[in-house]
Amino acid sequence: MPPQPEHSRWFSEEVHCHESSLRAYLRGSFPSVRDVDDVVQESFLRTWGARAAHPIHSARAFLFCIARNLAIDLVRREQHARLVQVRDLAELPVIEDVPSAAQRIDDHAKLLMLADAIEFLPARCRQVVILRKLQNIPQKAVAARLGLAEKTVEAQLARGLARCESYLRRRGVRGWYDHE
């Protein structure tokens, strides 16, 4: 079945245009992945197939999420293949208490989806969420700046956060720190 022109246009304008940044991201975040080209092509293929099944609201975030998952799978497979027995535990390297590259990438993808969620909020609601949660401005100051009652700011913030949470849950994000 030949590709539909609209689907091809979408892929060209919304997905394929991120190829160079995707390659750079994979090389920087997953230096042990030897064949970045395969990961990029498989990511394109899966994104194409997913779009055929349902709409994708943030093609870039979706593409990078797929690539991240593929790269993580490759790294895990290689780690299992390279098991080395150690006789003395003191010889083992110390584990750093910092987020892994995969966790940082996952957080970045979630941040892109959160930005999309905020973008789709109604204007007043978006203003309140940005001022309160992103700029950390006190509720009273937000009310004064926007000429609203504090209760209105509180209600708009609650609505905005609920809509953002719903938006993220529909895309598979259950919590900000769910690194499973």
- Low-confidence parts, pLDDT < 50 over ≥5 residues? none
Write the H/E string, N to C: HHHHHHHH
CA-to-CA gap between the ends?
37 Å
Large-scale geometry: flat
Q: What's the arrangement of secondary structure elements?
A:
Blueprint: H1 5-15, H2 19-29, H3 36-53, H4 59-81, H5 101-119, H6 123-134, H7 139-146, H8 150-170
Helix pairs in contact: 3-4, 4-5, 5-8, 6-8, 7-8
Question: Can you tag this structure with a few keywords?
Answer:
180 residues, mainly alpha, Arc Repressor Mutant, subunit A, 8 helices, flat
What does this structure look like?
This protein is mainly alpha-helical. The chain has two domains: 1-82; 103-180, Orthogonal Bundle (Arc Repressor Mutant, subunit A). The protein has eight helices and no strands. Helix 3 packs across helix 4, helix 5 packs across helix 8 (150-170) and helix 6 crosses helix 8. It is flat, with a radius of gyration of 21 Å.
Structure described in brief:
With 180 residues, the chain is mainly α. It has eight helices and no strands.
